[in-house]
Write a structure and sequence with these properties.
Blueprint lengths: L6 H30 L5 H21 L14 H20 L2 H9 L1 H13 L5 H19 L2 H4 L2 H28 L3 H23 L17 H9 L16 H27 L2 H22 L6 H35 L3 H4 L19 H20 L15
Helix pairs in contact: 1-11, 1-12, 2-9, 2-11, 3-8, 3-9, 4-6, 4-8, 4-12, 5-8, 6-13, 11-15, 12-13, 13-15
Length: 402
Amino acid sequence: MGQLLTAANVKALTYGAMNVVSASGIVFANKAVFQTYGFHFTYALTWIHTVFTLVGMRVFAAGGMFQVKSIPQARLVPLAAAYVAYIVLCNLSLKVNTVGFYQVMKIAVAPTVIALELVMFRRVPPARIVASVMVVCMGIGVATVTDTQMVSNLVGIAVGVGATLMTALYQIWAGSKQKELKASSMQLLHAYTPQATLMLGLLIPMCEPMGWHTIHMPAAPGADAATIAAAAAAPPIRPPGSLLAYQYHTAAVAAIIISAILGLLVSLSTFLVIGATSSLTYNVVGHLKTLIILTGGCMFFGDTMPLKKFIGVCIAMMGIIWYTQQKLASSSGAAAAGAAASGDPAAAAAGPRPPLLPISNSPVPVSVKSVYTATAARSRGAVAAAAGGGGPMINGRHHAHR
């Protein structure tokens, strides 16, 4: 027992718990902002999240969490635009859909990435990965077709599909940009967040009802003369339903701020979990988050989970677990082949991937610097594996909110 409670394992468990809480919590926080507090301004909420991320990334860089990399801003404009599109669509999907459908469509990102890679790069995955993706798609089909809340919500379906497609495109693009620019996910996020913040700031007045001008609310039809006169004498107000007319009471503001902080913690904890443990641990944690989010949707936001939908979700979860296992095995094989080709016998004989927790007798604690070093080393290994014929890492990316 004492061997398990090493400083490294305690740190890894702490990072894993932080990732589970933040990634699950932001879904519930965002849904509460939209549904409970009536803040229906998707672009504005996404902009607030991005501002918090911008400030947080500056603080993390100043604290030595990662090394800042100078990247020409012109090369980041398309990636920043893709980031804005995928984040806005994900938040919009959460706004118009149930939590359960939102999470099921997040599961659909993995097979969508496979399909896009096939179309865009003619990259044919191994048969086992194709089989696992088919299982995922079958589960998603069963879960969505049997969801009576969604079958009649054509707009929600369209937004959910668009969010899934844009998320997959962003993941592929971000992975290729990391290799092209030789930058980690944190370095890339740090570099393009200012552009994303500016883009969202410009989109808010274009896409949200701002309520710049005040109006006099007319009296209801058929009102008596006294009511009409009182309405005419009342002071002008902002148009109802506009951003400036929203009642920013304490609870609503607190919910918005909490959701923004959780969004920042998602990026940080993802980085720390992968750096202190392994990609396998991060994926296992991801499956736990899915279960928590689906359960929370039923408990807190009125989602239904009939038997057929539950069976569909279970099938999709089994498929995504199988898919994860195949992707990690494929990445390990590609890395071993690359090490053998490079003539490094130590790396070639490294054997299986590390366990779920970095069990070690070493008394050396896990520090921020050591986490950065481990993550950077794994990023270099992923780039080397990709150069040797492996596809872009899907599970090792930073996945912001959300």
